[in-house]
Design a protein that fits this description.
single chain, 333 residues, Arc Repressor Mutant, subunit A, five-stranded mixed sheet, two-stranded antiparallel sheet, 16 helices
């Protein structure tokens, strides 16, 4: 978890949100362990657990699981209560219907709908007042929440077919490859995600005890794909990560590990909106940022070797391409 990073766009949006809602945004940054300089650092990355901590602080400060982005607050604890209903359902489909019905009873600011056909199951998110969610933070959080809780309930990562968003593609669209590993469609009539309806028949395998652990790990558990992730992009990342500190395997080798042809691997990754090289670069980027934030500090030359660059100059140029600044400046900020 410590090696996952998120765009500082989220920190900037959350900081502005906290300020608008009357919270001491600077104090929240300090409590989350986030340097203020990151607010204005173009393309900077922030450890995901620190972004999660900032979200949790805003939840607590506003006493609202919707972070003030709807007409009425939802007191912390409602998500936990919904989970208590869901863990007693026999199947995922029945669990989702229980969760949807619960939120219909306790609030009117958003509506969750489960639609089924023979080929596709779709969860749709409709905000009553979308203009309050100007940075689309609540929309993203709701889609993440329902996908992650559904995957957790059956102890299996639900592979997404596609996600639809009612807004234009944002500048942070690269983040969506890991938040929502599938095809993304923007400027759509609805916000939704779809998957194979066969998942709805899977048995719920969680309990009250495992629910406590899941809730204790939120919101981090909502931002990181569930551990049983079956998306091909994440499976490729899992193959590459153990080799991040030395020579990473090539496309042929990764395809062999996954039991498929190089052509099939390339095509499947394309369908998920990514490529082998993009995944490789993201692994290197996140590992480099992880090493740059360690204490005592590690030299840039040593980090370059750790992430697979024999020449520090090549690493510096690559890092600047990933984050907009050279590694030394990134570390100082």
């Amino acid at each position: 978890m410590a090696k996952f990073t998120s765009s500082n766009h989220y920190v900037s949006c959350l900081y502005a949100l906290a300020s608008r809602k009357g919270l001491d945004a600077d104090q929240l940054l300090e409590l989350a362990g986030i340097a203020p300089d990151l607010l204005n650092a173009a393309r900077a990355r922030v450890p995901t657990e620190k972004v999660s901590a900032l979200v949790h602080l805003i939840w607590s400060g506003l006493n609202d699981e919707n972070m003030g982005l709807s007409s009425h607050p939802i007191k912390p604890g409602n998500f936990h209560m919904m989970g208590k209903l869901c863990v007693h359902a026999p199947t995922l489909g029945k669990a989702l219907h229980r969760g949807i019905e619960y939120y219909r009873l306790v609030q009117d600011d958003f509506q969750i709908t489960l639609k089924e056909t023979d080929e596709t199951a779709t969860i749709q998110v409709d905000l009553k007042r979308p203009e309050l969610d100007e940075d689309n933070l609540l929309t993203e959080l709701l889609i993440l929440t329902w996908h992650r809780i559904a995957s957790w309930l059956i102890d299996e990562q639900i592979v997404l077919k596609e996600t639809r968003f009612s807004y234009p593609a944002p500048s942070r669209v690269d983040e969506y490859r890991y938040l929502f590993p599938c095809i993304h469609r923007f400027d759509q009539a609805v916000n939704s995600f779809s998957f194979n309806p066969g998942y709805l028949e899977r048995p719920v395998v969680q309990s009250h005890e495992s629910l406590k652990a899941f809730i204790a790990g939120c919101p981090t558990n909502l931002f990181v794909l569930y551990r049983q992730d079956n998306s091909l992009a994440t499976r490729v990342r899992q193959v590459l990560e153990p080799h991040a500190s030395h020579s990473m395997p090539g496309l042929d080798a990764v395809a062999g590990v996954l039991g498929m042809s190089k052509y099939a691997l390339r095509q499947r990754l394309k369908e998920e909106g990514t490529s082998y090289q993009k995944i490789k670069n993201i692994v290197r980027r996140d590992m480099a940022i992880y090493f740059l934030t360690q204490v005592p500090p590690i030299s840039v030359g040593e980090i370059a070797l750790k992430v697979g660059y024999s020449e520090p100059g090549d690493f510096v140029r690559a890092f600047k391409g990933w984050t907009g600044v050279p590694p030394g400046q990134y570390r100082r900020s």
